Amino acid sequence: MLLADASSPVFSWNLLADFQEIWSYPFMVNAFRAGAVVAVVSAAVGWFMVLRRQTFAGHTLSVAAFPGASLATLIGVSATFGYFGFCVAAALVIALLRRKGRDSGAEESAVTGTVQAFALACGFLFITLYKGLLSGPESLLFGSFLGITTGQVTVLAVVGAVVLAVLALIGRPLLFASVDPEVAAGRGVPVRLLSTVFLVLLGAATAEAGQITGTLLVFALMVIPAATAQQLTARPGLSLLLAVLIGLGSCWLGLIAAYYQPYPLGFFVTAFAFGGYLLAHLGRAVHDRLGHGRSRAPLALGGAA
Asked: Please, are residues 202 and 45 in contact by the beta-carbon 8 Å criterion?
């Protein structure tokens, strides 16, 4: 069946009444609060991830959330511990095993692929070892908003505040090291330390996003808003702000759509974010066609270090 079933709520186009109905359910209030935290943190960290060309590392860390949540379910603890534990551990492994120098990008790619393969194998092992019915495997992969508790929202808010605080503290040198790592190193910027700290922040942000979008659709909030914003402007501050607004809008629109339709939340969040990305490309093509493309050239990058 392609349409919503008879038990699904009906959108009335009376926006005030529809909003009051959605807000009358505590699980939806928690979903919007958790979505706001996750969208803001993911967009901010994802903006640096796209700038540093570390999307493969972000994808691998999202995959690491899958065995983390599976192991937590297997041993009977909250999946939140599994998400954060495995994502941060995978980030540290990638940071510690790669080498310095001009070949660091290729080395990091190889280490990241190795970590991803091992994470997937562990996830399959934990599912096999679980003798009962694994609750919500689709939710682990594609996200859900039905089970978000007030305690989980509090954990997400605390972790998100810590991630944003650290990112604000290292933001300027991290931007310098991302755009031109060799010059930054020559000026005394601790490029390798910043890279390690950023990977840990990326692991924490990925663990947060995975609890909303699922481990397979983390890119919906980590990559697409940042990529869209960087299509619209080359000014770092404005681009970062746009990424946060696009991520927040995509997440909340996805929650509203998922409330009225019995389909995965991750699909709706991704669809809205992807629609914005296509519109940004169309707008930039029209802008360039009119001869104004030079003023919005993308940031010049030197690659991650």
From this structure: yes
> pLDDT of 146-155, one tens digit each?
667 888 888 8
In tens, the pLDDT along 204-216 reads 888 887 777 676 6
Are 184 and 177 a contacting pair, CB within 8 Å?
A: yes
C-beta neighbour count of 219 within 10 angstroms = 20
Residue 159 has pLDDT above 60, yes or no: yes
What is the SS3 string spanning 241-292?
Answer: HHHHHHHHHHHHHHHHHHHHCCCCHHHHHHHHHHHHHHHHHHHHHHHHHCCC
Q: What is the CB neighbour count within 10 angstroms for residue 161?
A: 12
Helix, strand, coil percentages (3-state) for the chain, rounded to 5, are 75, 0, 25
The position carrying tokens 């505590």 is 26
**Residue 231 contacts residue 282 (beta carbons within 8 Å):** no
Neighbouring C-beta atoms of residue 11, cutoff 10 Å: 15
Q: What is the pLDDT of residue 2?
A: 47
Please give the full DSSP string across 155-222, using - where no structure is assigned.
Answer: HHHHHHHHHHHHHHHHHHHHHHHHH-HHHHHHTT--HHHHHHHHHHHHHHHHHHHHHHH-GGGTHHHH
